[in-house]
Fold this protein.
Amino acid sequence: FIYGGVGLGKTHLIQALGNSAKQKNKKINIWYINSERLINDIVSSIREKTIDKIKDSYKKIDLLLIDDIQFIANKEKTQEEVFHIFNALYESNKQIVFTSDRLPKAIPGLEERLRSRFEGGMVADISLPNYETRVAIIKNKLKDKKASLPNEIIDYIAQNVTDNVREIEGALNILLISFEVKKIDFSLDVT
């Protein structure tokens, strides 16, 4: 169970986990799904009376990755089906990874039996990146964009944009575009 605030990389992490598992074992059956799609699939299967078919398809999974599981809160039938899917996979010794924006016990409207199962495995907190991590993120983003900035500007961004990775990337994009459009040299005086 991976939890943390918005824009801290939970989705990237869970997808990287799936990619890594696939590289190690080409035959592994991995299923990544976000909670919105999961809810829609379950609601449709209930309406079409094909819930057993969807349950059977989940039982064939070796690694189930569900992103933003907090959105199943207060959805009684979806929670019931997730409970059964979880139990079937757990009893078959399969792997299940969830992401959420908060701890299981902090998700209002989550059934106690699910909360207990979510807390029964490893629970990992993805916290805000520290200064050194923010600098590394900026440098990696610059490398990906085949761009460069003076260290003083990288330092300025890392010190002033601290909430999440998306904001860091957004600030960096705005800065790079501004410098490119205005055709000016990079300097703190301009930023």
Notes: Residues 165-182 form the longest helix (18 residues). DSSP finds eight helices and five strands in the chain.
